[in-house]
Amino acid sequence: MSFSTLVSDIAFRDAPPGERDSQISHARSQATARSLTSTRATSVSISGDISSQLHAGYSHPLARTWQSERQLTKEMLIYPIFITDNPDEETPIPSLPNQSRRGLNRIVPFLAPLVRKGLRSVMLFGVPLNPTAKDPLGTAADDPSGPVIQAIRLLRSTFPSLYITVDVCLCEYTSHGHCGILCDDGSLNNTQSVERISDVAVAYAMAGAHCVAPSDMNDGRIRAIKLKLIEAGISHQVTLMSYAAKFSGCLYGPFRDAAGSSPSFGDRKCYQLPPGGRGLARRAIVRDVAEGADIIMVKPASTFLDIISDAKELAKDLPIAAYQVSGEYAMIHAGAKAGVFGLKEMAFESTQGILRAGAGIVISYFTPDFLDWLST
Ligand SMILES: NCc1[nH]cc(CCC(=O)O)c1CC(=O)O
Ligand SMILES: [Zn+2]
Ligand SMILES: [Zn+2]
């Protein structure tokens, strides 16, 4: 007698109504111990390969959750937000659905309900709208009265449980829109840029940031920031998250709309990694660990899952973060709007890939949605 002929409806009598259909569709391989013993199994011996019977591990919804090494939790999420120098402003960003730029007076009312729902961390991006705020050196980046330093102080005092991560870069503040200080030929002056970026990082840390995350990609910035944090006596209280493997490409468009940070000439290919450059990314990860990074980040996320897995292998004792960038977020929204998939289903499926690859921290514009979805 073959194994499948043992299957009878008896095996599914206990299933809740909603689960019966999916269980019955798997009936051919689902003969359970209960049906074997409670019906006609006594005289039957099973032959065949026991190791090929996999469905037992996932026929029940709870058993399916046990198959993932990591499940998304609220603690894993960092929410990127844009803060302008216009205190009362609240402007939706057309290319980034449901996201807005906000002034200082708008962020506490916006974040309060999210904190109540379990928001644990934000990543701040400063967006100076006042044109006089931009110059070749990005002077406004660490202006003590500028939006980022003001926001750090405000959020620290308003939300004691909120972990404040701050993106550190000059592109939002430079007149040319590049991520550092330039040489006469338009290339990045690495020495001057690292000097400036590390000063800005320390200013954010001194203002109360729990974590500084340099995204500029100048060589040697991690070491320079770590040394200055030590010098300032705050290295034991400030996490240094390196955008170690940040790739150039076409997925940052909506962010540049939001932050007004498109380069005024050229592009960022000379300082962001080429998308095919797996070896370069591996070298950057190893280097940044050696320079003192506390967290390694990979960005974008879903098109670089192999790099996330490389980071997990190369920096195995550090937390690995993945930035699901603006273009990935906008793409999922566009797909859902076009009826290709459900927004929630795709948001979870995409994040599951990121976690499976090895990340334990996800920086995502879906954070407010996930706080709702993870509560129900
Ligand atoms: N240094 C700027 C910066 N910091 C984070 C992002 C991208 C974030 C996103 O697309 O969501 C960018 C854009 C860029 O490098 O051009
Ligand atoms: Zn930049
Ligand atoms: Zn940046």
UniProtKB/TrEMBL annotation:
Pathway membership, UniProt: Porphyrin-containing compound metabolism; protoporphyrin-IX biosynthesis; coproporphyrinogen-III from 5-aminolevulinate: step 1/4
Cofactor(s), names only, from the UniProt record: Zn(2+)
CDD domains: eu_ALAD_PBGS_cysteine_rich
Identification of the protein by name: Delta-aminolevulinic acid dehydratase
Keyword presence, Nucleotide-binding: no
Bias type Low complexity, positions: 27-36
Residues that, per the record, bind 5-aminolevulinate 2: S326, Y365
Keyword terms of this UniProt record: Heme biosynthesis, Lyase, Metal-binding, Porphyrin biosynthesis, Zinc
Active site: K246, K299
